[in-house]
Structures are given as structure tokens and as C-alpha cells.
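User: My instructor asked us to take a sequence, write out its structure as C-alpha cells, and then describe one feature of it. I'm not sure where to start. Here is the sequence I was given:
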Amino acid sequence: MENLIFIALEAHHAPRNHHRRYEIAVGRDLLDEWSVTVRYGRVGGGCREERFGGSDVQGLRQVVHERLKRRLSAERRLNCAYRVVAIRHERGMDREWLPEQLLARF
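Assistant: Let's start with the prediction itself. The C-alpha cells for your sequence are:
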């Protein structure tokens, strides 16, 4: 899969020993279908991975938006907020995948 969009978030709370990483990658597979990969877990440890794919672009965008919105509530749930540590996107990629008003809240 070619990563056309990649975003990595991390949340740290040393007193509670919370050190978490969350990554979302959007790309195209060999059959030119859209693919979203979500990886998450403890920083420096193993991670879990979920994959979503298909031709339903709107549905896949919704997956990305819902996952990012859930990370915004981490401060209330975990007492530590996620911060953007890396973001890359190919020139010309549709900004609807990563809306600026959503990213500005991190």
C-alpha cells in the first residue's frame, strides 16, 4: 500500500505510566482501492492493527474522522491528551481526509 496520508499521535502521562501511540495511514492498494490502516498501542511496545478498505471513500473518511475525534476525548478519559508527532500527505490529496478544524484541536 502506498501511504498518501499518514498521521501519528502520542499521549504521555508519566505519573500513571501512560505512553500511547496512534497512527492512521491512508493509501491505495494494488487494485487501486482505498485502504485505511490504524495502528495503536504502547510507545515502544507491540501494536494492534486494523485495516479498512474498499471503494466507499465517504465511509473510509468517516472511519478516519471518528478515530481522530475519539482521540480528542483522551484527556477527559485518561488525563493525558494526544498530540500530533508526525503528519505527511501527498500533494493534491483531498483535505477532506484530515480536516484542518479537526487537526487544530490537537
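For the description part of your assignment, you could build on this observation: The first helix runs from residue 57 to 72. Try explaining in your own words what that tells you about the chain.
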